[in-house]
UniProtKB/TrEMBL annotation:
It comes from the Archaea. InterPro entries: Cys_rich_dom (IPR004017). The gene is glpC. Signal peptide: none annotated. This is Anaerobic glycerol-3-phosphate dehydrogenase subunit C. One of its GO terms (molecular function) is 4 iron, 4 sulfur cluster binding.
Length: 81
């Protein structure tokens, strides 16, 4: 298992539940804020993204089309090896 930590300093744009609650403005604005991060991850050709935030998971999946998993899923997979 190889994991690369990327400290981007960027936000996915969801802002808690703002992107879910304040449609249509919230969704469009949150996606626009997250776009630089989405592009960074898509350009890096990652297998998956790891985040502990459930709302970031939703936003990152939608913005990148990549699999997004929780850190505990990674640990569980390592233990099973």
């Amino acid at each position: 298992l190889e994991v690369e930590v990327k400290e981007t300093g960027m936000c996915c744009g969801m802002a808690g539940t703002f992107g879910l609650k304040h449609r249509p403005l919230g969704f469009g604005l949150s996606m626009a804020i997250g776009e630089p991060l989405f592009q960074l991850f898509k350009n890096d050709k990652l297998d998956y993204i790891i985040t502990e935030s459930s709302v970031c998971k939703i936003q990152l999946e939608q913005g990148t089309g990549l699999n997004v998993i929780h850190p505990l899923e990674v640990l569980n997979n390592v233990i099973k090896l």
